[in-house]
Specification:
Layout: E1 15-21, H1 24-40, E2 45-51, H2 54-57, H3 63-66, H4 74-81, E3 87-91, E4 103-108, E5 116-120, E6 137-139, H5 143-152, E7 157-159, H6 165-173, E8 179-183, H7 184-189, E9 198-199, E10 214-219, H8 223-229, H9 235-250, E11 259-266, E12 269-277, E13 284-292, H10 296-309, H11 312-325
Parallel strand pairs: 1-2, 1-3, 6-7, 6-8
Antiparallel strand pairs: 3-10, 4-10, 5-8, 5-9, 11-12, 12-13
The structure holds ligand DPM.
Amino acid sequence: MTLTASPETASSTRIIRIGSRKSQLALVQTHWVQAELQKAFPNRTFEVHTMSTQGDKILDVALAKIGDKGLFTKELEVGMLAGEIDFAVHSLKDLPTRLPEGLVLGCVTERENPADALVVHPQHRDKQLDTLPAGAVVGTSSLRRLAQLRHYYPHLVFKDVRGNLNTRLAKLDAGEYDALILAVAGLQRLGMGDRVHQVIPAEVSLHAVGQGALGIECRADDEEVLELLQALQHPETAARCYAERAFLRDLEGGCQVPIGVDTTITDNTLTLKGVVASLDGQTLVKDSVSGPVSEAESLGTALAQKLRQQGAQSILDEIFATLERG
Ligand code: DPM
């Protein structure tokens, strides 16, 4: 036992300020983190401070066209560096793979189902992805979902959709779309798990890097907060997400590129599958790597190199050029 500062003793009067976006999903996630920390450290005080991010303000432009990394995280990061908040809770998939100088990923929480879900208009209650009629309008603003689904279901029509979950579901129910693709995890966290009509199998669509897990970002030099956050770290999820993030980082992909992953851990062996897809869905470069969990990040880098050798870079270059032309 050391007698240096530990979260329970020294400076335990410090109030810990948690930063969150204001969306309903962000607040549910942040309040969950606050409650878990309160359980682990009953004598400490955790306060939630909300902030709007760029991504919350720009609602009328297709996400892919805004193109900026860190759309949903930047204001929180500025607040952290300025000392206004002590850490920020993010959907890990919205957290860029390169963080600003002075900030780190403090912990990764236990992942919920990371898959995507098909959500349908009531008139298609008896349908699945395989049986939706030709011309059915599927709402998504994810290039990853679009490209992979187009590959297997070229007869479906994909249409951009923005706004929070309630807005999207209202547009679906009003008949603007026949179906939506949404993350299972987001629907479940908002108590709308009953809208998951079909969990899309990994064979059809690989999920986004970090999907289904929360990532908590904090200052690199704040040892007190780093130690508190260890209470929420889920080692298995963390290893999977470190591998996924290393893969994405190596491919220089922001959050808005058609890159998908799937990871499993069996007997201390981590298997990472990845895909880079062209926007028209014609080309899917897909492969996998396996190795010791302790080498999660190197596995991610190895998979990126493997896919690059199979043509992934030219797909990405073409997409970046298309997005720039706008
Ligand atoms: C990112 C994407 C989307 C979100 C792109 C992707 C979906 C955008 C859309 C990076 N962030 O997944 O390929 O479909 O229009 C987002 C959601 C969640 C976190 C909602 C969702 C909840 C699930 C989670 C938006 N960010 O994906 O349906 O915490 O992983």
